[in-house]
Amino acid sequence: MSQSPLTPIARALRKRMTPEEVKLWQTLRQIDGWKFRRQAPIDGFIVDLACFEARLVIEVDGGQHDAPAHRAKDRARDKHLEQAGFIVLRFWNNEINQNMAGVIDAILPCLDRRRLEAEQENV
Question: What torsion, rounded to 10 degrees, do the Cα atoms 4, 9, 51, 75 define?
Fold first, then answer.
């Protein structure tokens, strides 16, 4: 498998993840059976967190993502990733800090859905 040209950038971003990204990643690592990668290159983008087996991308957004230009850019990026077969979930920093249980409750059904789809393909 060839290395993405974004890999060196992704490595650098892993060293300066936001506290919310770290907090969510550490929580996701405790979910049995799923591996989440940090700052992962996908189709010309670097996503905050990705579970390739479940084809799930998770973005952790700060206030800059609320600017109209940034929202449009995020929508285009999400659409591209969804067309590539990924589920894209976005959470605000304050959701990670104040409602981690709710964040995990939003993520688990996506993982369950992907597991069910994989099981149905193997029948």
Answer: -100
Nearest of 74, 23, 69, 67 to residue 45 by alpha carbon: 74
**Is the sign of the CA dihedral 79, 81, 82, 88 positive or negative?**
negative
72-119 pLDDT per residue, tens: 888 999 999 999 999 999 999 999 999 999 999 999 999 999 889 888
φ, ψ of residue 73 to 5 degrees: the values are -65, -45
Residue 110 tokens, joined: 């996506």
Check whether domain 7-71+87-117 has CATH 3.40.960.10, yes or no: yes
pLDDT, position 56: 97
Q: Where are the domains of the chain?
A: 7-71+87-117
Which pTM value belongs to this model?
0.86
